[in-house]
Structures are given as structure tokens and as C-alpha cells.
Design brief:
With 267 residues, the chain is an all-alpha fold. Helix content is 39%, strand content 1%. Among the domains are: 2-69; 175-247, no CATH class. The chain has five helices and two strands; from the N terminus they run ααββααα. A two-stranded antiparallel sheet has the order 1-2. Strand 1 (158-159) and strand 2 form a beta hairpin. It is flat, with a radius of gyration of 40 Å.
């Protein structure tokens, strides 16, 4: 019977040990589940801030949960308060006043002087002529609409009246950005800047040119944009070389919704 009791005590001790180990595992599992939930929440919030709509990226009502073990009241490192003042640079930012309009000094100016008539410059008290003591200057911004003009190139032709076999001589045409094209470099630059900088579609530009007296079809503008690729190719290659020489290349990973008829939802 003593052997049976000893074996029973050993089994009971083993069961107690297993129950304690099981309790530790359950506690550890709960802690891991909590940590996993916090990490999942943080990842979802970060992805929402990166790829969500701009109006929904900030959600102050649901701030990011701290990582497990983070102490929000952790004091700063001791060297932060002990560093010398000359190691820090104070940056100040001045906000532009709402409603204030900045006028560049490089803009062309037209000065209009509104002077007091000479008959009204006499002092009503003594009759002496008043002297100018200063000027009040006010500024307004005017806009002169773009002007579409035609550059007509005339090349006189010369020939000998006595020897027709000598042929006809005319001055050579200057180099054009597009061979046999009617668009000047300035017009092509305007189309490209309006399309890629101001995001103005070609059909709208066609309407704008029509209001200025130039009926340019949208397809013609498209041909100019296509032909301009070769004109700006050297600039693109120089920009590519400059970007690849950088230590870090930044890119925008924000997805853009596009219409795709082959997709079930059309996007």
C-alpha cells in the first residue's frame, strides 16, 4: 500500500504541475491575443492614414492604441535637458494672413496719377498755392487676356529674267519645333503647361483657343503633344539621370481609382 500511496502522490504532484503550466499558457495566450489586437489596430490605422480619403485620414475620436508595454509617461532621456542651448536651432513660422494678397514686385506696373486740378490747389484761408507733402498709393491687380496672333513669314523669290535655268532663290525657313507644323514653340509650351501643370484637358483648350479666334481641333492639339515628346526627351533624360544619382528616391504610392470596363465593378 505504501508504494501505491507514493505513486498516487507523485501523480497528484504531476497533475498540479500540469495545471499550473496550463494556467501560465492560458495567461500568456491572453496577453498575446491582446498584443496582436493592438498591433492589428495600429496597422489598420496607419494604412487608413496612408491610403484613405483625405477627409477621413484624421480620426481624433479613435486615436492609435499604444504598443503593449509602452509607457506614455516615460520621461525624456537625461541628455535632452542637459544639452547646451547652442545645439538647437529655433525655427519660426509666420502664417500668411487670411485674405491678404501678395503682389510680386516683378510684375509690370502701370502708374496712373490722379492729381488735384490746379484751380483747387489754393488754400481757402490765405489763397497761397498748396505744396505737395506726400502721396497715397493704392494697388489693384488687372489681367490682360492672352492674345492669339498669326506670325506670317514672307520670303521673296528671286530669279534671273535672262537665264531661267539658274532657278529661283528664296531665303531658307527658320527651324521649327514641329516640321511642317503651324504651331510655334510658345504655343506648344502653352499647350503642354496647361495640360500637365494646370490639368486642363485638350478639348477645353480647344474651346479657349476658339474664343481667341483660333479654331484648333482637339486632335491637332493631341498631335502636337505627341510630337513634343521628342522635343523634351533631352530634358527627361537629364531629370532621370539626376534622380538616379540621388541617395534616396521618393515615390507616391497613393492608389488612384480609374475606370476599367473589363472590371466587374467598372474600376
Amino acid at each position: 500500500m505504501s508504494v501505491d500511496n507514493s505513486e498516487m502522490e507523485r501523480l497528484r504532484a504531476r497533475v498540479a504541475e500540469l495545471e499550473a503550466s496550463n494556467a501560465d499558457l492560458l495567461s500568456s495566450n491572453v496577453a498575446l491575443q491582446s498584443s496582436n489586437a493592438a498591433l492589428t489596430h495600429k496597422v489598420e490605422k496607419l494604412l487608413h492614414q496612408l491610403y484613405g480619403r483625405k477627409s477621413e485620414r484624421r480620426d481624433d475620436a479613435h486615436p492609435l492604441l499604444p504598443f503593449p508595454g509602452d509607457d506614455p509617461e516615460t520621461p525624456p532621456p537625461p541628455h535632452a535637458d542637459e544639452a547646451a542651448d547652442d545645439e538647437y536651432e529655433t525655427l519660426t513660422c509666420t502664417r500668411k494672413k487670411r485674405g491678404a494678397t501678395r503682389i510680386s514686385k516683378d510684375l509690370p506696373r502701370e502708374t496712373i496719377v490722379l492729381d488735384v486740378p490746379e484751380a483747387e490747389r489754393k488754400c481757402p484761408c490765405c489763397g497761397e498755392v498748396m505744396q505737395e507733402i506726400g502721396r497715397e498709393v493704392s494697388e489693384r491687380i488687372d489681367f490682360v487676356p492672352a492674345v492669339t496672333k498669326v506670325i506670317e513669314t514672307v520670303r521673296p523669290k528671286y530669279a534671273c529674267k535672262h537665264h531661267e535655268e539658274c532657278g529661283v532663290r528664296t531665303a531658307p525657313l527658320p527651324a521649327q519645333p514641329i516640321a511642317k507644323g503651324m504651331a510655334t514653340a510658345g504655343l506648344i509650351a502653352q499647350v503642354l503647361v496647361a495640360k500637365y501643370k494646370d490639368h486642363l484637358p485638350l478639348y477645353r483648350q480647344s474651346c479657349i483657343f476658339a474664343r481667341h479666334g483660333a479654331d484648333i481641333a482637339e486632335s491637332t492639339l493631341g498631335d502636337w503633344v505627341r510630337d513634343a515628346v521628342e522635343l523634351v526627351a533631352p530634358v527627361v533624360r537629364a531629370m532621370r539621370t539626376s534622380v538616379l544619382e540621388s541617395a534616396v528616391v521618393q515615390s507616391d504610392d497613393t492608389p488612384v481609382l480609374v475606370l476599367d470596363r473589363s472590371h466587374p465593378n467598372g474600376r
